[in-house]
Specification:
It contains three helices and two strands. It is mainly α. The chain has one domain.
Length: about 60
């Protein structure tokens, strides 16, 4: 039987999901140029995960 995930495990999973979403959106190209700006991506992810844009930037750049 699997042990229940701790809060730390769930937080780490959320951080991984946020970083993966950032990579996914930043890899979208149109005519060889990144389609979405950094600010747009951060705001979009912040809305999806109910976090502030500053928190999302801290997670993306491993400051937490």
């Amino acid at each position: 039987m699997l042990a229940p995930k701790t809060k730390k495990d769930r937080t780490q999973q959320m951080y991984e999901d946020i970083r993966a979403k950032y990579r996914e959106l930043s890899d979208i190209k149109s005519h060889g140029v990144q389609k979405y700006s950094h600010d747009y991506i951060v705001i979009t992810i912040a809305n999806k995960f109910y976090k502030s844009p500053k928190t999302i930037e801290n997670i993306i750049f491993n400051r937490v």
